[in-house]
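Hi support team,

I submitted a single chain yesterday and got back a structure, but I'm not sure I'm reading the token output correctly. Could someone confirm the output below corresponds to the sequence I sent? I've pasted both exactly as they appear in my results page.

Thanks,
R.
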Amino acid sequence: MYKNLLSPITINKLEIRNRVVYPSLGLLYSYDGTLNDRYYEYFREKARGGTGLVTVGPVGIDFIGSGNIISMLDKDEAIPAFKKMASVIKDEGARAWVQLFHAGAYSYPMLLNGEPPIAPSAVFSRYSKAMPREMTLEDIEKVQEAFVSAAARAQEAGFDGVEILGSGGYLITQFLSTVKNQRTDDYGGSFENRVRFPKEVIEKTRQRLGADFPLTIRMAGNDFVTGSNTDSETKEFAKVYETAGVDAISVTGGWHETHVPQLPASLPQSGFAFLAYNIKKEVSVPVMASNRISSPDAAEKLLKDGYADMVSIGRGLIADPQWVNKAMVGKSDEIRPCVACLQGCMDSVMSGKPVTCVANPLAGYEGERKIEKCETPKKIMIVGAGMAGLEAAVTAAMAGHHVDLYEKNDEIGGQLWIAGAPPHKGELLGFMDYYQAMLWKHNVSLHLNTKVDDQLIKEKKPDFLIVAEGAEPLLPPIDGIDDPSVISAWDLLKEDRLLGDEVAIIGGGAVGLETALKVAAKGTITPEVLYFLFTHEAESVERLRELMFNGTSKVTVFEMLPKVGKDVGKSTKWVLMSDLEKYGVALITEAKVISIKNGLVTFEKDGKTHQRQFDNIINAAGSKSVKNISEKIEKLNIPFAVIGDGAQPGKMNHAVHGGFLAALEI
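Hi R., thanks for writing in. Yes, this is the structure output for that exact sequence:
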């Protein structure tokens, strides 16, 4: 089915079993620069799942380049631990790679014992919020030798290949960019001078490793930073890398400080594949495409269309390490989807916490959370087929229990239908397909259009009851909240409707802001219409942009707190805020809505009372748990657990992980 994706490929003289690459991703499973069992089990699962090439990293080459926040190969004492890691990966049939890392100006001084980071030039870094020290020629030589020595240690540890990190805005890209490199010596100025540092790193590493050892580089396809390198220059860098001695090139998007989203759901699937093709046209070594390649179908199409020779599946393999094995046997519908929420991966890392996954409760817990077959199967009754109930049902069935899942509505999913309605959130609906496939596979009995009450529970006599009743909209204490002009955000997201010219939204949390974006986008042109008009030059670029962002309703958000989006993840909040600005959404913070009457909103701000007239008012003030069954459950004398929003309103990981753990504890 996936002829290209699952076919072998050779890098240098090394054959790899398929075209799927697990790329380097920061994990934060230790804070002392060492590998540990959590790392070993995590990477074991990636290899066991059928992945062709598994990359361990980023791996630090010296202290000044990263601190100890990542695993380090800066000393010979680290070799035994990396030798164990190489064996863990290779024993499962995958090829083991190490990615060598130096952050340059992106290093945080707090991780360097207060020392400033080093960089090509003393240019303030917006990413690390630090002023680096300009590297001397001695520094340059020392860092190059650190790359070479770390590569030699990886080779000695038994790894199959080494990748040099030359993307993301880190040290190598800083040398390449005139924005960061303002040197006047042999390492700055002209193209030849700016590319000299990575060229020498590659040449020296190649010399140390020998001609037959695979050496690759990960590079930016376009920095996406004003004044820096575009895809016009990056293909020229790629040519230099090939001549210097790399055997393959992994192409990703831009720097961490770019204003172009690199990973969230607003980036279309395979959105940066064109960058890989831009490089592939210019070199003869294999090229890997990256960023938002989530499904086997998308990956196969990239290879079939000639965009790249291999595909990097990063967060998709966190969501489901068995991604390749399931694709191999035609079970793609059973792949747990990555929906690019970034909550368990990027948000965690940016908060200094270990990587997990909202959708996969085993990610990061591979060594401690196990689904084991029960000795005595029990009769399990689960109330509610939202995310929490679905995960509990599948997990309990996998453990060998007899599971009946009850849902009062005519379809599974619960609040997923609401969460998947705003712009760029549609991939959340893919969970329905996944869970439907898993319910079928594990013989879970699904009862739709069935409202559960005390009598039904007594009649079914379950051995264990899991209650996942979910939540409902919260009505804030506002006079006139039941005014005919007021609509629940949940109702609007469930079923779109005609709205007037002026729309107010009460509540500036995640639901309120995403609802605002959905309303503001109503009446704008679709991507298909934009493509048609642009292709035929039917309108000017300025007019097309106007049609993209000016909808049929003007939106105003009222929020009591000083800032909106308190519950929006760090890695996606800036994207959401940027979109709201583009669509002209007005945000009124520190505003308390007092009353609503016939669309007239009275609110307090800055100690004064204000009034504004709206055609529609949308309540997005929060949610509260539904406890129709949970409040009576103790009287039934049945072992039970209350999970998900029914226990306490929370995010998706609260539902999925809670449902999983409840099923394990039966």
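A quick pointer for reading it: The two ends are 39 Å apart (CA to CA). Let us know if anything else looks off.

Best,
Support desk
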